[in-house]
Amino acid sequence: MDINQVVIPAAGLGTRFLPYTKSIPKEMLPLLNKPALAYIIEEGLAAQRTNFLIITNQSKQAIAHYFAESTELNSLLHAKNSGGFLGNLPQVIQQCRFTFINQNEPKGLGDAISLARGHIDTDYFCVCLPDDIITPEHAGLSQLITHAQQQQASVIAVQEVPRARVSSYGIIVPKKQVSTHLFELADVVEKPSVEQAPSNLAIVGRYVLSTTIFKALDEIRPCAQRELQLTDAISYLLKHTQEKVFAYKIQGSRYDIGTPIGWLQALLTLALENPEYAPSLREIILKYAQ
Ligand code: G1P
Asked: pLDDT (tens digit, 9 = 90+) per residue, 64-88?
């Protein structure tokens, strides 16, 4: 199975992080000295994917700017002997191919994905939602690709969530448990009520999808909020085509950086796991704990 492109929908308004996101995209929130989106790109690279399609809009130029080479900055830093300050960014830029696709109106995740259609050149492709940060040592996307290749089918990432939280997520309806962490799906439901949730296995923002999803996106109708839901298109695949879809319980911690508290949690975790930052941060925390 060939999987080339990684689609990253990054045109959302970032409403849960306003007013910060009025001028700065949430994908550019700092996690230590790198923007959150850099972690997603590195997760793609760890899965040997280098071709990124970023769905964005005119007000998010900062994203393209970050992933473009800046000869001016390079020579300024070189003159000051500070080239190393860019970390691995020059290598990342060199290894990757970035294509930016404009989503003029925020018409939902499904609409954002459908804009990638003309750019996908293999039967399967990946989707990474940049709100969901998975701890880097767990290489979230790699896990998913391995299982998609084994099953020769679409695979979506899931994690258990407390029942009270199910209405914030897409929730899966398992058909059968294939192995400890892998389920074949009967259906998926976007943000069900606590009472109606078919399980507590919630979709995490990593997907390997068959390109049949584009036909499904053509068939479904927008939800009550007038947005096209990716979850509804996956449900359509399951109900109206012969294609199977699997869910894999992804290993690793996942943080939703789309809210201030989720971002803070991701930031603190990454800092406490990083030998450069951990000692000073521990000192600061201990001072406040006294
Ligand atoms: C999106 C998906 C949802 C998924 C979630 C994961 O929702 O529609 O199925 O569970 O991402 O973060 P959003 O958080 O964009 O509302």
From this structure: 999 998 888 888 888 888 778 888 9
Collect contacts of 261-268 with beta carbons under 8 A, ≥24 apart.
263/17, 263/29, 263/31, 263/36, 266/31, 266/36, 266/133, 267/30, 267/31, 267/32
Cβ(153)–Cβ(243) under 8 Å?
yes
Q: How far is the CA of 64 from the centre of ligand 1 (A)?
A: 24
Best of 203, 206, 255 for a ligand 1 pocket test (most atoms within 8 Å of beta carbon): 203
Q: Is the CB of 202 under 6 A from ligand 1?
A: yes
What are the percentages of helix, strand and coil residues in the chain, rounded to 5? 40, 25, 30
Token code pair at residue 211: 């390109």
Overall average pLDDT of the 116-140 stretch: 92
254 beta partners: 134
Could you tell me the pLDDT band of residue 269, with boundaries at 50, 70 and 90?
Answer: very high
Q: Averaged over 56-60, what is the pLDDT?
A: 91
Q: pTM, whole model, 2 decimals? A: 0.95
**Which of 239, 254, 232 is closest to 158 using CA atoms?**
254
